[in-house]
Amino acid sequence: MFKTGVLLSAICFVGVLGQLNDVFEWKELNFVWPSEEAKSNALKNGDYIPDNNLPLGLARWKDKLFVTVPRWKAGVAASLNYIPLNTTEKSPTLIPYPDWKANQIPKKGETPADNQIISVFRVNIDACDRLWVMETGLADILGNPQQIIPSSIAIFDLNTDKLLRRYNFSESDIKGEDSFFANVIVDVTKDTCDNAFAYVPDLGGYGIVVYSFAEDKSWRVKHNYFHFDPLKGDMTVGGVNFQWTDGVFGIALGPINENGFRTAYFHALASCNEFSVSTQVLRNESLATDSHSFELYKLEGHKGDKGQASSSSFDEKTNVLFMTQLQRDGIACWNPRTRLEANNFVLVAQDHEKLIFTNDISIDAERNIWILSDRMPVFIYRQLDPNEINYRILKMSVDEAIKGTACEA
Fold it and tell me: What phi and psi values does residue 295 have, to the nearest 5 degrees?
């Protein structure tokens, strides 16, 4: 019986691999510089160290594919960038967004600009053509960490590239030095642009910060389900073994239900469980912060012993949730109409070379799944080989990915 299951999985695996489309790949990242002189000077003074530029998050808007490059180490040229999708280059240079100046660390004594970008992990594009940027404000994270500007949400109008608003987190949103905000999920429709909500997971402080655009205020939510699983923090990816304690990280929103709210599916990175809660809870400050709301959260199920995931994204048309699979070098799906268990949690893409550490996924308006893999454990704990392809962006169709699987249920 076991051998039969393995054989069937292998057959499905071969069919799925043919659907992956290699879009971009890099050995090292390069950028569109103001001039060759500026690049040369940056290389000389250490403002640009190619080895230290690792892509991490992505999101598509029209003909732009946004790619983030957090300042894990010194020498990151620009943290928020985009690639024109009409390029014919396989390893294109990144264009800083909203411009080059905004991505430069202010010199001593300089006042940060209103649209300042320091270090971004993930971004989110909403139905109102706005780019939501989770700005950590933290530079040289793995070296000599410096909080250049406060942790904040920066919101840009993609049609004008102008900053609409920046919201600095309050002291009550932050849990001392433990807090680390690396993701932002936006709850809005094109008819409710002025009533948007953002959900920002705190992977180090084990909480979620909810931001109301209409009220321009935020509140912190805590729950036991936001914590990591101590039995699932030991992982091996790309031949590197490491132990992480990252809590709530991936959040994906289901379709609007009959009461006008959505289901928020979430998980800690160091966990193989998936949980959910109605956004009706999160969006109500008094309810969200009341300890009596504990039982309004639900355990959806278990994704398997190596089911740790970073990012997740929901396709409303098919009602399917997609997740990265860090230890499986792949992407998996689950249809919430079925119980979350091994038989219904399907690996739809796997490649032990191209998908080493699938750091982020994002579904665009045309229902393509964009995938970014970056070998991050090697980057952090060892050293990437600049002669090898280290970073990749791939994509696949939602419908083709789930065809013939339990996710079509």
Answer: -75, 0
Q: Are 221 and 278 in contact (CB under 8 A)?
A: no
Q: Give DSSP secondary structure letters for 168-218.
A: EPPGGG--GGG--B---EEE--TT-GGG-EEEEEETTTTEEEEEETTTTEE
Element spanning 90, H or E: none
DSSP labels for 314-328? Answer: EETTTTEEEEEETTT
Q: Write down all domains in the chain, each with its CATH number in brackets.
A: 2-408 (2.120.10.30)
3-state DSSP assignment of residue 276: strand
Residues 139 and 148: their CA atoms lie apart, in Å, by 7
pLDDT at position 7 over 80 = no
Look at strands 197-202 and 185-187 and give their pairing: antiparallel
| pLDDT (0 to 100) of residue 2 | 33
Task: For residue 11, name the pLDDT band (cuts at 50, 70, 90).
Answer: very low
Residues 190-238 have pLDDT tens digits of 999 999 999 999 999 999 999 999 999 999 999 999 999 999 999 999 9
SS3 159: coil
